[in-house]
Automatic annotation (TrEMBL):
GO terms for molecular function: isomerase activity; metal ion binding. The lineage of its organism: Bacteria, Pseudomonadati, Bacteroidota, Cytophagia, Cytophagales. The keyword Isomerase applies. This is L-rhamnose isomerase / sugar isomerase. Residues 103-288 form the Xylose isomerase-like TIM barrel domain. Keywords: Isomerase, Manganese, Metal-binding.
Length: 427
């Protein structure tokens, strides 16, 4: 199924009078505060969030999986699903592949298919946390950190293969997330494991194309429960610094212990020019991979406040980060969930753009925490939904993507096309 512009226009026309009223109200308010509405809208439109190829089907836990039907069975169908999202929200213009979950067999065809949906290929992700059927050596006790040099070489070779696939598609970055770690005290030598990881990453880095970046993702626990080799941003940053200029830290929101000050991590990494990429999701307990903004929208806003400050800082040497959603969907329709996530990201971004940075800096210099809080919360409590909707409509997408998804019976159509029992591969 493809959504046609006329279908979107018809839905938008119906919602237009109500939208106009709310948009005029906020435009008027922002203009009175000297905030240029047109440039806000442009910024919202150019903020594109990659969708991972593994998030388009229902995920499961080890206790069960409840697929809803109509899931994409092939990479082409996964691209079609991201195309549907992008047609609805004009904010998901890229797809990120996990190899070997999604190997592009016929590259020319896959590229043309993605281009027909106006989609780019974002970072490619390697996978050395599972054993594949044809694999010689097991990753049970680690990959890039393994005590056996043959396992390490196999993992390095896999990363090189992932880069080759990415090059063919036009990707420019490799995301490395390692499950490597141990579940019992004494099981692994911390220092040797980290040293071997660094050495293995050095091999990959040295052979990476010159215009590529490497993103190193950290996570405190899971799948191992005592120690993870790259457990936190500090370890990731240490590795990235030792590797060189084109290695960066990747922050996945779910990869922190409860109450971690993620916005401070963002600020520190950007100050060092080392924030390469971002995986959005939300959580209550750990790596819950829930819909972005579902649990802690204020935290998301505070994180965006730092991201915007970092991106607006002319002296910053931080490159423009790669944005991606990284979530799994056990209860919700994956496409509806992704629409909600993209919207939550756009809202937090728009709110962060409203922060009066000069006034905030003055309040900080004057040691006025009351005023600083007022300034932040004034932005956070602004209803920016009409701004984001306007940005979408101007870009040819739906004023209300979720309502459009339901009115156009997208899932019902997909179930009809692909069957009730079709299940996506991946997570
Ligand atoms: C690990 C992770 C990482 C993987 C993805 C499937 O928890 O966040 O980014 O590649 O999930
Ligand atoms: Mn992730
Ligand atoms: Mn994760």
């Amino acid at each position: 199924m493809r959504i046609d512009k006329n279908q979107i226009n018809t839905l938008n026309d119906k919602a237009l009078p109500d939208h106009r009223e709310s948009f005029e109200y906020i435009s008027h308010k922002l203009t009175a505060r000297d905030i240029p509405v047109a440039s806000l809208i442009e910024k919202i439109q150019s903020f594109q969030i990659a969708i991972p190829s593994w998030a388009l089907g229902t995920g499961g836990t080890r206790f069960g999986r409840f697929p809803g039907g109509g899931e994409p069975r092939t990479l082409e169908e996964k691209i079609d699903d991201v195309g549907l999202l992008h047609a609805l929200n004009a904010g998901s213009g890229a797809i990120s592949l996990h190899i070997p979950w999604d190997i592009p067999e016929n590259v020319a065809q896959i590229k043309a298919h993605a281009a027909s949906h106006n989609l780019l290929f974002d970072a490619v992700n390697s996978n050395t946390f599972q054993d594949q059927p044809e694999q010689q050596k097991s990753y049970k006790f680690g990959s890039l950190c393994h005590s056996d040099a043959d396992v390490r070489s196999q993992a390095v070779a896999h990363n090189m293969e992932v880069i080759r696939h990415g090059e063919a598609l036009g990707s420019k970055s490799l995301t490395v997330w390692l499950a490597d770690g141990s579940s019992f005290p004494g099981q692994m030598n911390f220092r040797k494991a980290l040293q071997r990881t660094l050495d293995s990453l050095r091999e990959i880095y040295a052979r990476m194309p010159e215009d590529w970046k490497m993103f190193i993702e950290y996570k405190p626990y899971e799948p191992y429960f005592y120690h993870t080799v790259i457990q936190d941003w500090g370890t990731s940053h240490l590795l990235a610094s030792q590797l060189g200029e084109r290695a960066f830290t990747l922050v996945d929101l779910g990869h922190h212990l409860p109450n971690t000050n993620i916005e401070q991590i963002v600020a520190t990494l950007m100050m060092q020019g080392k924030l390469g990429g971002f995986h959005f999701n939300d959580s209550k307990f750990g790596d819950d991979d829930l819909t972005v903004g579902a649990m802690k929208p204020y935290q998301l806003f505070l994180i965006f406040n730092e991201l915007v400050a970092g991106m607006e800082d002319n002296t910053s040497k931080n490159p423009y980060p790669a944005w991606m959603i990284d979530a799994s969907h056990n209860l919700k329709d994956p496409l509806e969930d992704l629409l909600q996530s993209v919207e939550a990201i756009q809202l937090a971004y728009a709110q962060a753009l409203l922060v009066d940075r000069k006034a905030l800096e003055n309040a900080r210099e004057d040691n006025d925490p009351v005023l600083a809080q007022e300034i932040l919360q004034r932005a956070f409590r602004t209803d920016v939904r009409p701004l984001v909707a306007e940005a979408r409509m101007e870009a040819g997408a739906a004023l209300d993507p979720l309502a459009a998804f339901r009115t156009l019976s997208v899932r019902e159509n997909l179930v009809r096309e692909r069957g009730k029992k079709s299940m996506a591969t991946g997570l």
